[in-house]
Design goal:
The complex is a heterodimer.
Chain A (H helix, E strand, L loop, with lengths): L4 H4 L6 H28 L1 H25 L6 H20 L3 E3 L2 E3 L4 H11 L27 H23 L13 H30 L1 H21 L6 H19 L4 H21 L1
Antiparallel strand pairs in A: 1-2
Chain B lengths: L1 H13 L10 H17 L4 H35 L1
Classes of the chains: A mainly alpha, B mainly alpha.
Chain lengths: 286, 81
């Protein structure tokens, strides 16, 4: 067995660690679901207020955990990562839309998310192995990085995402009103925002969850969180249908899997951009 | 009365009356975290410094969101005049 520290932390956690995190995890998921339900029932203002409250609570939990364990352990890092989806939803709901004449579209939330990704994606929160062009979350799975097969896999990620984007675009509800044709810069702003969101989750949250729960559960957790936030963000832009939701979940799992295999994160970000571009174009041209 | 008229005039000039209250939620969260940070900074010690640093990182995206709001309002005002 290797003694490499990058591999050692990915060992399955002990049962006591998992038992200690079970209640906070259930409370966290319940808080996310309740906040999103308030968005749908009570409107954007009430929902965004819930997300803002959740974000402030989680920031304070991070501070308390950091002080209690003197900056050691995983709990403060997990609390910090848990605040990101709340911040993400708060920004999606409350950052003013991109306006161009009479055209308005929610896209500018990518800028504060980019600031978050730059600030959080460095030590001590995230292991220093994270990077844009390939970051071995699991080095054990990454031994074929330089082989031609891995290059083909790298290219296949955005191509598969494009195919899923086309499937999602085809399955858009036909009777929904199309998006008013906006300038190309608006489409670029939306695609940029979703790419930043993808990079934030893959470069910041996935390494932390992998460290706590191991590679597979970390990948599934991050993909579920990203599917939740990206689909709810898409809900503000395009008419949603069952096919779009399924494609959104599938593409999040695909990107999670490719990240955990250590494929370059640039391919994942490109794939997210292509997926979003397909959906937007289909909704505009509908 | 004069103050109310002046306030209404300022709000009208800046176009703030047309802003949704939703846009001010990140600003409220930002103010809360900044206030908390200042209170924590009043205490000395490594714990307070670490807490202040964490709160500083948490306020950064909210600051950028506020900057986006300001830039949009300025572009609205200058685009209108």
């Amino acid at each position: 067995m290797s003694t490499d520290s990058a591999v050692a932390y990915l060992q399955p956690p002990t049962s006591s660690v998992l038992a200690g995190l079970a209640r906070p995890t259930v409370a966290y998921v319940a808080a996310l679901i309740i906040a999103e339900a308030i968005v749908r029932i009570g409107g954007s203002f009430a929902g965004a207020a819930c997300y803002a409250l959740g974000f402030i609570v989680l920031v304070n939990v991070t501070v308390l955990a950091y002080r209690r364990f003197d900056g050691e352990g995983l709990r403060w890092r997990l609390a910090a990562a848990a605040g990101v989806p709340f911040l993400d939803r708060l920004l999606v709901l409350s950052v003013p839309p991109f306006t161009w004449g009479t055209f308005e579209i929610s896209a500018l939330w990518g800028l504060p998310l980019l600031a978050t990704a730059i600030t959080l994606g460095r030590p001590p929160l995230v292991p220093p192995s994270a990077g844009l062009l390939g970051h071995p979350v699991s080095r054990a799975w990454f031994t074929r990085q330089n082989s031609p097969r891995s290059w083909i896999l790298t290219v296949q990620v955005p191509i598969t995402a494009l195919c899923l984007g086309v499937i999602a675009a085809v399955s858009l509800p036909q009777n929904a009103p199309p998006i008013e044709g906006g300038p190309p810069i608006a489409v670029a702003a939306v695609v940029f925002a979703f790419c930043v969101q993808e990079s934030l989750y893959r470069l910041v949250i996935q390494p932390i969850t992998a460290e706590v729960w191991g590679d597979r559960i970390g990948m599934l957790t991050t993909s579920a969180l990203l599917a939740f936030t990206s689909i709810t963000a898409l809900y503000e832009l395009v008419p949603m249908g069952f096919g779009v939701v399924l494609a959104g979940i599938a593409v999040s799992l695909l990107f999670g899997l490719s990240t955990v295999r250590g494929l370059p994160i640039a391919g994942v970000i490109l794939g997210r951009g292509l997926f979003t571009f397909c959906l937007l174009c289909a909704s505009i041209l509908q | 009365m004069t103050a109310a008229i002046a306030l209404t005039s300022v709000l009208g000039t800046l176009g703030l009356r047309h802003l949704s209250p939703l846009y001010f939620l990140p600003l409220m969260a930002l103010l809360f975290l900044l206030l908390e940070r200042e209170l924590i900074r009043a205490f000395s010690g490594p714990g307070a410094r670490a807490a202040s640093r964490i709160l500083g990182i948490a306020t950064l995206p909210l600051l950028v969101s506020f900057a986006v709001l300001v830039v949009l309002r300025l572009s609205y005002i200058f685009g209108r005049s």
